[in-house]
Amino acid sequence: MTRAARDLSALEERLGHRFKDIALLEEALTHKSAVASGRRRISNQRLEFLGDRVLGLAVAEMLYQSFEQNKEGELSQRHTALVRNETCVEVALMLDLGSHIEVEDEKQHGQLRENHTVLGDACEAVIAAIFLDGGYEPAQAMITRYWQPLMTASAEAPRHAKALLLEWAHGRGLPDPVYREVSRSGPPHKPTFRISVEIGNLAPLEGVGASKREAEHSAAAMMLARERVMTND
Length: 233
Prior knowledge:
The chain has helices at residues 3-15, 22-28, 32-36, 45-66, 72-83, 85-95, 109-113, 116-134, 136-156, 161-171, 212-226; strands spanning 178-185, 192-198, 205-209. It is mostly helical. Helix 4 (45-66) crosses helix 8.
């Protein structure tokens, strides 16, 4: 049994979807190198194509319902930001997809976990796998679960998200937010940081960024969005 097959139940929990046909999820996590070596028959490239379209539709619907006052051009800008590879990579990191991707040689695993193209493609492929396994609704639910906080944070969070979060915590009589580095991945010249923010007994949240400061800002913005400190216009 491969590492991917052993761990898929935990991934299903994070996705919020229990697969009827687990082979779809395995295919979504198969890098083309595993096919070239003969370990697998089909890579995730076709699923990536489909997942990109499903993601685009779900995000468009989410934006249409959330920003009723925005014109077409504004909605298009928001849409582009949310479906770009960088955002898919951010979700892939939240899901820890890198540890499940099957490759030609297990020695490659660490390198591929740091490859943003591979992670982004796998994220789209997983969306397609959910769509094929259960239809649009479970795929939409997964997208909403991970993309809506990003949509809210990117649309509303000011540059001083950390200061606003600190002010909010003090107003609630809560301790200062604590930021902790969860992981650092990627090459030295282009790292990706995962930072968690914790406030008292509140459930922590993680942010991702190209620097610690950016990741802390992202985490603070996510916390503000979850706690409904900011509201849509």
